[in-house]
Amino acid sequence: MDLGLKGRVAIVAAASKGLGRAVATELAREGAQVAICARHAEGLERAASEIRKATGSEICWQALDVTDASGVPKFVDAVEKRYGRVDICVTNAGGPPAKTFLEISPEEWRAAVDLTLLSAVYFAREVLPRMRKNQWGRLVTITSMSVKQPVDGLLLSNSIRAAVTGLARTLANEFGADGITVNNVCPGYTLTERLDELAEQQAKSAGIPREKIFERWSSQVPLRRLAKPEEFAALVAFLVSERASYINGATIAVDGGWTRSLL
After folding, report:
1. What is the extent of the structural domain holding 124?
2. Residue 261 falls within a domain, yes or no?
3. pLDDT digits (tens, 9 = 90+) for 9-55
4. Closest CA to 183 of 249, 229, 238, 227
5. Global pTM?
């Protein structure tokens, strides 16, 4: 299937590893011109090099903390100056700490809002006017299956990622008439570095081997396995494509059926 992404300009945030990197790789493979960012230059440069080798596409990269309200506009502006436009933006950020309510300080709440919600706001504020000017655009926010069904021990994620979903749904209404779609994608248990960290924490807390945590998670999924990042990235690539032109305001889980809700 030709997704019509050849020559499109895509920004993927937090793309040095995990889901962001998988999405950047998939878009580059489909022929998009991809710009990526993440906090640490060394890991980002390595990711760009490896994506280039895997896809044959040149990758633009810049070290950036997505919570930097002044840095995000500079990054988006640099991408537009380099490629002449911005067609696609995939917002993403590392997950907030796994803690229960009484363990979370006010400072950690503020930091989680900055990381999870405001980072998406910063990118949306920059890319949507540019997309409106071109009367075409795709904005995808990466959140979590926790927006459909809360996950025990992930209170910050459960709370603040829901706000990102509300943001995306409202932007879909406001910008749909401009040829822009806005959708939210919710990964389930996916084999990334973030999942390794959560497994280590839960295993230590329960006093059991980390393999038991992975077995427990797998048993909760109807497919009886965890996802590969590439499986998640495939949906994102479709949503930002020409083929998905009538999908707008959707919140789609890529979780193997873990979420038990009807919608």
Report:
1. 9-189+227-254
2. no
3. 999 999 999 999 999 999 999 999 999 999 999 999 999 999 999 99
4. 249
5. 0.95
